[in-house]
Amino acid sequence: MKRLFLIATLVGAAPALADEGMWTYNNFPSAKVKEKYGFEPTQQWLDKARLSSARLAGGCSASFVSPNGLVMTNHHCARGCIEQLSGAKKDYIANGFYAKTEAEETQCPAMEINQLEQITDITETLNKATQGLSGKQYADTLKAKMSELEQACSAGDAKVRCDAVTLYQGGKYNLYKYRRFQDVRLVMAPEHAIAFFGGDPDNFEFPRWDLDVTFLRVYQDGKPAKTENYFKWSEKSAKEGDITFVSGHPGRTSRGLTIAELEYQRDVAMPKMLFMMSELRGMVSEFQKRGPEQKRISNNLLFGVENGLKATKGRLEALQDKKFFGQKVAAEQDLRKKVEANPEMKKKYGAAWDEIAKAQAQMVNIRKDLSFVEQGAGLSSSLYSIAKTLVRASEELPKENGQRLREFNQANLPALQAQLLSPAPIYPELEILRLSFGLTKMREELGSNHPFVKKVLGNESPDKLAARLVKGSKLCVLKDVKGSKVCDVSARKSLFDGGKAAIAASKDPMIQLALALDADGRAVRKNYEENVDAVIKKNAELVAKAKFEVYGTNQYPDATFTLRLSYGSVKGYQEDGKKVEPITQMAGTFEHATGEEPFALPPSWLKNQKSLDGATAMNFVTTNDIIGGNSGSPVINKDAEIIGLVFDGNIQSLGGEYGFDETVNRTVAVHSDAIIESLKKIYGATRVLEELRPGSTQVPTVPTKPAG
Q1: CA 46, CA 28: separation in Å to the nearest integer?
Q2: Which residues pair with 274 in a beta bridge?
Q3: What are phi and psi of 38, to 5 degrees?
Q4: Which of 25, 230, 241, 676 is 20 to 30 Å apart from 98, CA to CA?
Q5: What residue spans of 216-258 are helical by DSSP H?
């Protein structure tokens, strides 16, 4: 990393300094914000911001920006939908999309948007239920009680989603109640060339010149949903020094993990992940050279792999920095000394770190089996994933809710069913390539004599088996609808509705394979959940409680893909001895264009260059504390108005999984002015403009000169 983090911010226990923290809405430090910035968010302000924020179930953030269900997020967050709606004859990734009328707004095949309506503290309830328990009994009881609370919260309403959320590694638990929108339609998306201008070379860098934005709309009962709470668009441009808030869903941070857990990530998990992703990137890059259609159908996969590679490299570099890691070790040792010095605390918490270390050692032993037998690394196929879900659904759904595997709980069923029955296209050529790659890696990692490898491959090669499985499956029968490919999912629906009898009678090769392998996967999962996961959860809870006793409760929890609010300001930084200015201008977009990917601008931008105001702010950076999952988050001002759209962090922020340094960690956002300027002068998106700024598209009336 280019800078080390401040030790006080690394502990994951001491009160946050500077602009650090991804804070829950029920524990936001409003007084601290007032102390630094002179503005104190009220409860009413926080409630409005919470209800105006949104979550894309696939792993991104968003916001409501009109009273008629209009939602703003990143282009890269909606890429799956845009690609699924495209075809060889109408490529919306390459050419963009704009619905000129409401009737042209097109439903995304598999997308869900959530709005957080209520937060309830359930810590006492869960602690009481699991008191004195450990191992399997602890894990089963915790799972059952969580499911019970979730089911009672949703009360069987398919429009409600309730999730029991673990915070502070088990120090606290909250119940999050969401309003669920499953009819999501595409309204406007720019071309990929400007939404990811600079491509992988500029990814996690600044200065930037991207228009990474897409507009969606949520519908209810076939009509645009009425959204009483939404962020209005600011009339004032964000400038250097302005206070900023980011409301979004950071996916995961590891600031509160023990040294044993961090060592596992540094020495085992991340290096293996990097090797595998690097090989996958090379394979997909070669696949793209087969032709334009192969490139089109694999672009989304390549984007995800390259993004993951760069992010993982940044995190690994942070953990490999000896001084940085030494500070983490020192912080843990300091906490443990304080616990050891207090007989009562020592009795309650003293053994927790050693128990977690033992569980991590066990994790090293079972990692390969967990990854390839249960988690699907070797069977990296959309069709196999569907088959496995269908097989497990037939087993799990007849059980009582609390006895099911967590992914089949009542709270997850609407989303699970929507995914299973999604008509999103699955392209055989790409599917065979991915599956063959996974099977090859499985054989390499587990060894050709491993019983599971023999069971899967038999006498077939990875290439031959992948081709036979994909070509023989009826779980996605591609058909052409209005120039786009969609899956006929009637076979899936019959299997889902038919339950165990239909699954047992199925001749589909993917279903047959999933049936044959199900017991193997369940056995590995059982071992992991009882001997690793349950041990870590129970003892992480004890570590968290020790931190509360030593440092107090005025701290933020690690990210969990739940709604958080961070605060900061528009501010540049120093890199290699030079100041990086916080705001770029639209003119810079054209100055950096080379005409070749990834610096090639789309024709719409080249054609309208002269009509644009080159001084318009394009992208900007802030000191807000964010992480992956915050993509698509709104940047708002003290009036809870939109001033930008988060789409990235700078390269220094990649180590933000483990700590925060305000001097260099930066959030990267599209400026609200750039969005308005491009909608107006490049895309002619008057419907969207009118919703964002009512009255802005009306032509002013020229007064008639009085007679005489």
Answers
A1: 9
A2: none
A3: 75, 15
A4: 230
A5: none
Q: Which two tokens stand for residue 174?
A: 């909250």
pLDDT value at position 708? Answer: 31
Low-confidence stretches of the chain (pLDDT beneath 50): 1-16, 700-708
Is residue 352 within a helix (H) or strand (E), and if so which, with residue range? helix 352-369
CATH number, domain 23-112+182-254+558-692: 2.40.10.120
Count of C-beta atoms within a 10 Å radius of residue 176: 23
Helix (H, G, I), strand (E, B) or coil at 406: helix
Report yes or no: 74 and 60 within 8 Å, Cβ to Cβ: yes
Q: Phi, psi (5° rounding) for residue 480?
A: -95, 125
Both tokens of residue 502? 């239909």
Mind listing the pLDDT tens digit for each residue in 416-433?
A: 999 999 999 999 999 999
Question: Which letter, b or e, does each residue of 104-123 get, where b requires 16 or more Cβ atoms within 10 Å of its Cβ?
Answer: ebbbbbbbbbbbbeebeebe
Which residue matches tokens 């409630």?
A: 47
Helix (H), strand (E) at residue 668: strand 667-671
Take residue 210 and report the two structure tokens written for it: 């991207």
> 482: alpha, beta or left, given left = phi > 0 and alpha = psi -120 to 50?
left
pTM: 0.92
pLDDT (tens digit per residue) in 149-204? 999 999 989 899 999 999 999 999 999 999 999 999 999 999 999 999 999 999 99
Contact by Cβ (8 Å): 77, 647: no
The answer to whether residues 589 and 559 touch, using CB atoms and an 8 Å cutoff, is: no
